[in-house]
Each structure stands twice: as structure tokens, then as C-alpha cells.
Amino acid sequence: MTTTQSTRTERPTGSLSAWEGMTRQLDYWVTVYKRTWRGGVISSFAAPLFYVVAMGVLLGGFIQADPDRLEGATSYLAFIVPGLVAAHAMQIAVSESTYPVMGAIKWHKTFFAQLATPLAVRDLVNAFIAFVVFRIASACAVFMLVLAPFGVFESWWGPVLAWLAQVLVGTAFALLTFGYSARLKSEEGFGVLFRLGVMPLTLFSGAFFPISNLGPVLEWAARLTPLWHGVSLSRMFCLDTVDWSLAAVNAGVLVVLCLIGWRWAVTGLDKRLEV
Amino acid sequence: MISARGLRKSYGDFEAVKGIDVDVRQGEAFGFLGPNGAGKSSTMRMIASVSPVSAGELRILGMDPATDGPAIRGRLGVCPQEDTLDNELNVFDNLYIYGRYFGIDRATCRERANELLEFAQITDKAKAKVEDLSGGMKRRLTIARSLINNPDVLLLDEPTTGLDPQARHVLWDQLFRLKQAGVTLVITTHYMDEAEQLCDRLVVMDKGVIAAEGSPRELIEAHSTREVAELRFGVGEHEVLAGKVEDLGDRVEVLPDRLLVYSDHGEDVVTAVIDRGLQPIATLVRRSTLEDVFLRLTGRSLAD
């Protein structure tokens, strides 16, 4: 080992910029991805395709409904696809922000090691979420590309905007879940989150059937869920039935949830790592 | 390098550090010696600029951790008490990726990682998984990782806890080499032999306060005699027999398994004990250590 001064690192005088804080963790997350992408292929790409085939094509074959009753979709497959992808974005977001966050705090203590460097709590949150967003974006992109030949999209630009909406809803869920996980002492809380959060949201936020079927009260309850805003955006863009004022509300709600979620995540981790 | 005045750390109602004054100078090996719960690790985390100061003043490398945390951490090396190596990365990547967090460019990072693997004597394990390393190797890797940014100050929290004697000596040798290379070391330990081996200067901490400060030799001279006669009698006899030998030394300590008679002439004490017709099962005359200093200052042994 040499102790010459020549390779002494640069000496920051204050906090790193958000960009610098993230790029310094790039090699770490690339290594993580290289190690985990194979497992991700199954859960991110294969599983949703099974869903589409089973629910959209096979089950959907029995469903002949007027397009007016399917929010403008010409087939059940075309109806279910945008919602399924949005729900899938949420599921990836939640699964990537639960056990991995707890692991980095409690089991592997990765966050503690990272925090002994010039990186700050917000840098850890930003890079972590950037990685989750990348996972969501790539999974949803592949999903959408595979579905293109099924004739479920009404324009070329619609699916691109729908994809952005899916990424947005995924990001909101990733940040909110991160904040929850950072505050959780035991992994038992994740069971509650999956059973009472993810599961009902997947089933009742308009992914599988129009929320008007729920009746007036429950329909409004469904409209208050974050996932519904993502499903609504995703579907309007895919089916080219965009109501721009509704789209603005949907996107606005999701952006606000992202901002609240970021704050919730950073304060949660900050509190947890302060020992 | 490090200066603390009236430094305090509280967790709710519990005060772990109760107003300590510390100065660490450049190039020295400075120790915090004390039992578990003395406030050493809390102090270390404040110095590492990851735990906010509750009260008092703390300056590290002339900077305030409250405002210059990232800048300070960029110049520190931290070897934590608990293993925080990334088990999912191989040995080389643990060093390389950690270096990237400091903003070191990729080529320099690779170069440094290879140098440090050599320093830690684990070059042949570069591609191995961390979980396949022995405890001693993991510790050496952790220390190597803490050196990736060529730190001005290296913080070592209980560096050899849990290691076998041979691994401890390898580690001490490496820390000694770092010290000779001019790296300032700050070490917490509850092993008095470690403190004696490594520290130029140390503070004895107990219950959140500093009980004494000085070099190991100064502390022993100030708070203990040159030698100690250890007398082992039958179970339960020590308390009773203490009165019969207390005039033989400066003072007597009663431990559960032996009596310690403090005197500058230990052999004379043992001879006198036998002359009085007492029959210890075993006797030992040794030089005073920091353990004796601690016992004197706190009335407890370090293991308590």
C-alpha cells in the first residue's frame, strides 16, 4: 500500500449535487443489475405475459361487451392490457422497495456503509429509486412492445405516453413504499402491505373491469386510489380516448404523490439511519 | 485533527455521552478505552459525521460535521464495529465500488483496490465472495475498504472484537504500519492489550464520561503501582483473606476469582503472604496494565 498524496481523492467542501450523488452509485447499481437481471426476467416479463394470455386472450374470449361499456376498448384484451401494465408497474415498484430497503438497513447494512462516505441520505434514496424506475421502465417497455402485434393500441404515440404514465405511477409507489419500508422494524409489515394494499388495488382500481361496475360509492373510492390514476392515464393513451382535463388531474395527482413520497422516503431513512 | 468540547449525545432520555473534551493530533494513534456501553461507539459515530451532536462543540479537520458532513466523510476512513461489507459483491468489487462513492475515477479506483488487496494480504481472494472469507480476512477487507480514499483519519471501532489471537496480531501489524505511514488512527476498544499495543494516547471512558487521559505508560504510572501480585485462593475465601494481606501493598482489589495486591515489588508480596502461613493455590507477579488502571478508576473490570 502506498500513502503518497498523489491519488488523494477530491475533497468536497459541502453536499454533493443530486446528479453527482447518483452517478457515484452507478457502478454499484450496474453490478446489482448484472447479478439480478436473470431473476428479474421471469418476474418482470414472463409473469405478466401469462396474465395477458390467460386473462386477456383466453378469459377475454368469453367477454363480448359493447365498447361503450369497456371505456372505448374494442375487445376485452384491449381493455385489460393498459390496466395490467399499470398494475404491473405498481407491483414491481412495491416488491423492489420492500425487502431490498429493509435488507439495506437491517440485514446487509449497505446503507450504513454508503453513508460513511460523502453520500447523503437523499443520494441513497435517489439512486435506489432511479434503479427501481429503470426496472419498471424496462419491464413496462418490453411488455408494451410484445403486446403491439396483438392490435390493442390505437395510435403509435399513445402507447409511448401510456408507458410514461406507467413509469410515473410506478415511481409514486416506489417512493411511498420506500418510506414505509424505511420505518418498518420487522418484515411482518410487508405481508399487511401486500394483502391489504397491493392486492385490493390490483383488483379494484379498474385494471380488470371498469370501475363504474363498482356502484357509485365504491367507484369514487376507486378514483381516490393512486393506481386508478395510472390505469386511467395508461388506458386513455392506449385506446386514444384521451380526456385531457382528466389526464391532467391523473398526472397531477401522481406527481404530487411522487413529491410527498420522496419526502416521506428521505425523512424515513434519515430517521432510521441516525443512530 | 479532531477537537471536542463538552460533547454530548442523547437518545431520548438516555445520555450516552455526557460532555467530553478530546483532542486528537495529526499522526497519532488515539484510543477510547472502556467497557461496552461506555459511550465509545456513540462518540465514534459523531466523529464519523453520521450521528448529529446533541450538545457541545465538535470540529473534525477544522470543519463542523453539522454543516460539512460530506466534506469531512470524504477525508475519513471508517471501519465500523459491525461488518457492513456487501455480501453480494465479490472482494474486489467491495473495494472498487466503495471508492466510486468517494468520486475517485475508475482507473484510480482499480489501482487502489489492487494495492489494498495486497496490503490486506487477500489478493488471491479478489474474485471470492465475501461470505467465503474468514473473520480475520473480512476485518482486513473492511479496513482495506476504509483506506480506499487515502483518508487523513482512520476510525476503527472495536477492530479486533471476535477475532482469534493470530488474526488480531496480523491486524495490529497492519494498523502499526499505517500509523508509521502517517495515518492518524482513532480506535475504540475494550481490550486493554490492544490499547497498549496501538495507542500513543488514550482516554478511559466509563458511563459517558472520561475517567482519565494520557499515554498508556502515564496512566499506569499515575493510577497503579509498577507491579501486581495476583493471589488465587479457594472459592469464596478471597473476601475474607483480603484483610490479611492489605498491609502488604498500596491497595488490594478483590475479584471473584483472585486477590490483586498492588505494590512496586510483587515478589516481596508473594513471599510475605507465604511467610504469614497463607497458602494461595496459585500466584502470579506481573506488571500493571490498563486493566488495573480501569479497575482503580471505576471499581469494575473491563469485562463487566
From TrEMBL, chain A:
Acyltransferase as UniProt keyword: no
Subcellular location: Membrane
Broad class of the protein's primary localization: membrane
InterPro entries in the record: ABC2_TM (IPR013525), ABC_2_transport (IPR000412), Nod_factor_ABC_transporter (IPR051784)
Domain ABC-2 type transporter transmembrane: 32-235
TM regions (residue ranges): 41-63, 75-94, 124-148, 160-180, 192-211, 244-266
Protein's membrane topology: Multi-pass membrane protein
Superkingdom of the organism of origin: Bacteria
UniProt keyword list: Antibiotic resistance, Membrane, Transmembrane, Transmembrane helix
UniProt xrefs under PANTHER family: NODULATION PROTEIN J
This protein's name: ABC transporter permease
From TrEMBL, chain B:
Residue intervals of the ABC transporter domain: 2-232
SMART domains: AAA (SM00382)
InterPro entries: AAA+_ATPase, ABC_transporter-like_ATP-bd, ABC_transporter-like_CS, ABC_transporter_ATP-binding, P-loop_NTPase
Coiled coil: none
Annotated compartments: Cell membrane
GO terms, molecular function: ATP binding
Bilayer topology: Peripheral membrane protein
Keywords: Antibiotic resistance, ATP-binding, Nucleotide-binding, Transport
Keyword Transmembrane listed: no
Source taxon at top rank: Bacteria
Stored PANTHER family: ABC TRANSPORTER ATP-BINDING PROTEIN (PTHR42711), ABC TRANSPORTER ATP-BINDING PROTEIN NATA (PTHR42711:SF5)
Family of this protein: Belongs to the ABC transporter superfamily.
Protein name: ABC transporter ATP-binding protein
Organism from which the protein derives: Nocardioides potassii
